[in-house]
Design goal:
Number of strands: 0
Order of helices and strands: HHH
Helix content: 25-40%
Radius of gyration: 22 Å
Distance between the termini: 66 Å
């Protein structure tokens, strides 16, 4: 069984592609986030209940899924908090102790 190589020429096609780029004013930010040790299913369910109480619907199932992320991000934006991560600041703003 001899190996063979076949060369094929494929014609190029071109298209104009539009994209949006979101730029910020720049700079780095630092935020203390919950780690696996203090963000177990019970703590996540507490956060979900607090989000729901604050009118940001999040099923209290203890799983940090897309619905919880959307609720958390909405809460963070409305309260001028860092977004994208479950931060200690966010947990405290929800009236919870991040360490218990």
């Amino acid at each position: 069984n001899a190996e063979s190589v076949e060369v094929q020429t494929i014609a190029a096609s071109f298209a104009t592609v539009e994209r949006q780029v979101i730029k910020s004013a720049g700079g780095l930010s630092w935020a203390e986030v919950l780690c696996e040790t203090n963000a177990g299913p019970e703590k996540i369910a507490d956060v979900q209940r607090a989000l729901t109480a604050a009118c940001y619907n999040a099923a209290a199932d203890g799983i940090f899924g897309p619905q919880t992320l959307r609720a958390m991000t909405g809460f963070q934006q409305a309260n001028d908090l860092a977004t994208g991560y479950l931060t200690i600041e966010t947990v405290r703003a929800l009236g919870l102790d991040p360490y218990t």
